Amino acid sequence: MISPRLGCALQFLVVSVFGTICCDRSGYRSDICIMKGDIRTHSSSSSIFLYNPRSSNGSMNNVNVSRTEKDQVLQHEKIKPYTRKWETSVMDTIDELNIVSKKLKLGTHSHDCNVQHDVPAVFFSTGGYTGNVYHEFNDGIIPLFITSQHFNKQVVFVILEYHNWWIMKYGDILSHLSDFPAIDFSGDNRTHCFPEAIVGLRIHDELTVDSSLMQNNKSIVDFRNLLDRAYWPRIKGLIKDEEREAEAQGKLIEVRPENQLKKKKKPKLAILSRTGSRVITNEIAVVKIAEGLGFEVEVLKPDRTTELAKIYRALNGSEVMVGVHGAAMTHFMFMRRGCVFIQVVPLGTSWAAETYYGEPARKLGLKYIGYEIEAKESSLYERYDRDDAVVRYPESINQKGWEYTKKIYLDSQNVTIDVRRFRKRTGSSDQ
């Protein structure tokens, strides 16, 4: 039996002749549709049309040919181009696209192009959980790399549920995946024409790239190298700004990376600080412990508006990153291979901490330490009886459903680290 994915690859051999749409719906995380030929957008009807010069007699098997002369529909697919296919609640918020193959009538000009593109397009959505940095990378940026990198930047991104702030935030990365400006599918009513299109994004696993599924065996390390290329030009600009400011203030300092390395005496440890929930209530004590171990400590408090290049600069220059389980742990990808990532794991979050950040960090080549707190280190210890299942058997609570996990362990828990235990458990990168 030929797999749907292989079937699509084989159909590409005839797509350029017949203009067939091929959809792979076998994936748990996302659907993908691919097509080649006379492709044209029609945003007002949320449609992408593939105009086909063949007659109905030349249609392929499994193609639904309309009997009405008016429609001339050869094939009609629907797809929501977002990578959380299994999660009905969020997929219900994603715009759906119609992908329609039509027989081209000779002499018809109703589908003329307004903008002719000579390179392929990739259609995807930046809706859903966009606004959360984990989901922005896991559900969007990394799948975009997986899906488009083989085009060598000769590709146009067409975005559903387009956000200007997202384009600004990830512009440095997008410019290393495409040489062309992104298109707002709903906001641009012109007819854009393409010779080839991929609708939807491929996703492999949590914050990773499976090299066995990639052309030229590209891996998460290649994605990490792309981040380097994307952010260092901006970082160099930040350094020049600091030099000018220092010179204006009459300070004889150098902030260039090469000079910092020469003068560096202490390894750097970065703490990603949280507000709201899962706060380290004795963060100052943790800082002192790290300083006592010989580290230069920087406390980072990134939020939605923090420029990623600044976070990248701080973490790329750190030997150790420490933080409590949460979306900000996604920034482990900004660290250099061989460095240490310590994730503080609150009660009830062990599986998520390992799955979403621990395992991906190891794949990237980091030395990962998961510091699982004891009950006494959790604020829940004071709120519940010490024999309550919330404290003693977190997994039994998690089994009740995500809403319980979120309400109790994610939104209502802070951490007071036992600094002696923390020092002992994290003192070796072999933990």
Automatic annotation (TrEMBL):
Keyword Signal in record: yes
Domain Glycosyltransferase 61 catalytic residues, every copy: 255-342
A cellular-component GO term for this protein: Golgi membrane
Source taxon at top rank: Eukaryota
Range of residues in the leader sequence: 1-19
Subcellular location: Golgi apparatus membrane
Membrane topology: Single-pass type II membrane protein
Signal listed as a keyword: yes
GO MF terms held by the record: pentosyltransferase activity
Sorted UniProt keywords: Glycoprotein, Glycosyltransferase, Signal, Transferase
Family matches, as PANTHER family: GLYCOSYLTRANSFERASE
Protein name per Swiss-Prot or TrEMBL: Beta-1,2-xylosyltransferase XYXT1-like
Lineage, opening ranks: Eukaryota, Viridiplantae, Streptophyta, Embryophyta, Tracheophyta
